Amino acid sequence: MRVLITGGAGFIGSHLADAYLENGDEVYIIDDLSTGSLDNIAHLKEKGAYRKRLFVHIDSILNRDIMMELVGTCDVVHHLAAAVGVEFILDHPMESIKTNIQGTEIVLDLCNKFKKRVLIASTSEVYGKHTHAPLVETDNIIYGPSSKFRWSYAASKLMDEFMSLAYFRTTGLKVTIARLFNTVGPRQTGAYGMVIPRFIGQALKHEPLTVYGDGLQTRTFTYVKDVVWAFMRLVENDAAFGEVFNIGGIEEISMADLARRIVAATNSSSEIQLIPYEKAFGKDFEDMQRRVPGIDKIGKLIGFDPQTPLDAILAKVISSMRKRTDTI
Ligand SMILES: NC(=O)c1ccc[n+]([C@@H]2O[C@H](COP(=O)([O-])OP(=O)(O)OC[C@H]3O[C@@H](n4cnc5c(N)ncnc54)[C@H](O)[C@@H]3O)[C@@H](O)[C@H]2O)c1
Fold it and tell me: What's the CA-to-centroid distance between 33 and ligand 1, angstroms?
């Protein structure tokens, strides 16, 4: 099978490429390296058997001509390319909206034209400001005002969901939407605000771990390989087309506790420092206090039941970041 992964040089995309190549499939990647890196796929290019089945295009999904060629060539598309991460969105407001809306429109239009199956990576951010748990796919959505720019990420991903569902309803496009909750693992960068690599990077350097707000906001974390497992099954499953699925872990932890756990796991001498949101992100920022997924829907369809505990995930990321730091 030929698989196109947009954003394949990114964190999740590169793990998805690993899995399909291991399966014996051909993998086509398009990535503009805005937040991704060739380092994420360098190991694949080194493996002789994989090299012949891996095709990498450094370009934007906004380039319709190259996208036409790639979607036309492949049997299935995983659309992961996006402007990602709160800090990146706040720093690149215009370009982020363009990539997330126009880019997805190109992907959907071409998948429809060539009748290809497609999975769209959405986000738990689309739920907005809920505090109840768990969040289920049919929940209402609550956003802040458009002056708070952090909501543009959620709103653009929600628009992607609407476009996908509109294609499904009007043309029968075989499209599935995956709402990812915080996904973590080796190769994720802390450069754009992702909390676990950011905290671990600080702990390994014995710098203060900077926790935003009062640190009582909670999240759950999913190991990237559990997410990849789910993506590969969802995109093949006829009952998943035209549907939205949460994909997330269930172990809830506050950011202050997470920081403490990382300090202990790294034997770091770092202190924990609370930073007001306004100081970290400016006045246009609002955070969600709690984000816990309901995973019954995906559990029933494909048996998704993430088994990697947070401590095991942290150990894997710490080990991979230690190796990277050693080589710098
Ligand atoms: N990691 C998470 O916790 C998480 C949570 C929710 C949703 N998601 C979604 O999963 C997907 C993958 O995220 P990730 O965590 O791997 O982030 P990532 O930044 O590592 O991956 C995104 C990739 O898309 C590429 N990209 C961005 N704009 C592009 C463009 N115009 N053309 C081509 N490539 C472009 C980037 O260079 C990067 O390699 C994204 O759609 C994101 O919204 C991730």
Answer: 10
Query: Which residues contact residue 273 at a Cβ distance below 8 angstroms, ignoring those fewer than 6 apart?
Result: 208, 209, 210, 211
Q: Which of 84, 119, 288 to mutate to test the pocket of ligand 1 (most atoms within 8 A of CB)?
A: 84
Judge if the beta carbon of residue 61 lies within 6 A of ligand 1: yes
- How confident is the model over 49-67, as a mean pLDDT? 94
Looking at residue 328, what is its pLDDT?
Answer: 37
CATH fold of 2-183+222-248+291-307 reads Rossmann fold (3.40.50)
Length of the chain: 328
pTM of the model: 0.95
Question: Is there a cis peptide before residue 208, judged by omega within 30 degrees of 0?
Answer: no
Which sequence spans correspond to the domains of the chain? 2-183+222-248+291-307
pLDDT one-digit tens code per residue, 64-76:
999 999 999 999 9
Query: Which positions are annotated as active-site residues?
Result: 153
Burial class (CB in 10 A: 0-12, 13-18, 19+), 240: buried
Q: What is the pLDDT of residues 131-149, one digit of tens each?
A: 889 999 999 999 989 988 8
Residue 60 CA: which ligand 1 atom is closest?
32
Report the chain's mean pLDDT, rounded to a whole number: 93
Residue 306 CB less than 6 A away from ligand 1:
no
The letter for the amino acid at 71 is: V
Q: Which residues contact 31 (CB under 8 A, 6 or more apart)?
A: 6, 7, 8, 9, 10, 13, 56, 57, 58, 81
Among 5, 12, 98, 189, which residue has the most ligand 1 atoms within 8 Å of its CB, making it the best to mutate? 12
DSSP assignment of 278-314, as one string?
Answer: HHHH-TT----S---B--HHHHHHH-------HHHHH
